[in-house]
Amino acid sequence: QAKEAKRSACVLYSLEMEKDGRVRYELETELRRAIEMDDFMVYYQAIVDSKTHKVTSFEALIRWQHRDQGFIPPSVFIPIAEDVGLINEIGLFVLKRVINDLDYLKETFGSSIQVSVNLSPNQLKDSELTDYLSALVASEPSITQYMVLEIIESVFVDDASVHRIERLRAMGFLISLDDFGTGFSSLSHISRMPIDILKIDQSFVSKMFDTERDQKLLKNIVTIAKDLDLKTIAEGVETEGQQALLSAIGCSSLQGYLFARPVPIESLDVSLLSSKVSEQS
Ligand code: C2E
Ligand code: MG
Ligand code: MG
Ligand code: MG
């Protein structure tokens, strides 16, 4: 009996695996097609100053509108793009689109505006990205003051990648450490990283009011970041309570649905007048 149950569990498991494999394969094929058909878009989400609530920057977030499956979230397709070696191409698409949109963003939101772009750790594994950016900076030196590059801490396990980050930072790009608090990095590591901004992950923000300890931890992260001359951005701010406390403990900027959702560039001015506008997806 037990043996039988074990066997059918095995069969079920491999059926699941097969299904997963098929889904992955289909997604991979579709990803290649999406690149050819230009089905990717870049949405922008505002980041506001915690005191004035004025927009200081935007985060560029990729969107994939599949012709019959609708929007497929980046959390689903980015890992697959990384696995199958398509992330460099997709990453460059986002970067080029953002660079194209910069003039409009400056005109609309003022010339102190900045845009942050997410970089996959894979994009730092070879020199394609850094070559592209250094050529860009050579022809347009002022571009670095408008751009922030968001990386995650796993980048720091690879020496060559760290070296590339240092080079990009030396060129003038601001470097932001995304999703802080989800990995293993401690504050002692942060002090040695070539970064300018610390983005506190939304998991911290969402449990901020759970316990006193959570709140103390958050407060200390912000304080230490400040001591290290790092700007802090809290992600996933959804309530006025979170906003008030984050601003009280000295977090410099806030990002979240409370202020704005990610929207296409055409909808930006509208979305900033009202935080109730929903993401068009
Ligand atoms: P991330 O870089 O940490 O981006 C923040 C995510 O939080 C975005 O999800 C954003 O829509 C979401 N978010 C913002 N405010 C709130 C809020 O108040 N509540 C909640 N629940 N969520 C909020 P999104 O756009 O689905 O992106 C997910 C992740 O996919 C990103 O996390 C990033 O890791 C990755 N990603 C997105 N675009 C790109 C890209 O162009 N290149 C690369 N390599 N990765 C990207
Ligand atoms: Mg990010
Ligand atoms: Mg994040
Ligand atoms: Mg994330």
Automatic annotation (TrEMBL):
Domain spans labelled EAL: 24-276
Superkingdom per UniProt: Bacteria
Protein's UniProt name: EAL domain-containing protein
Species per Swiss-Prot/TrEMBL record: Marinomonas phaeophyticola
Lineage start: Bacteria, Pseudomonadati, Pseudomonadota, Gammaproteobacteria, Oceanospirillales
First and last residues shown, out of full length: 647 to 927 of 927
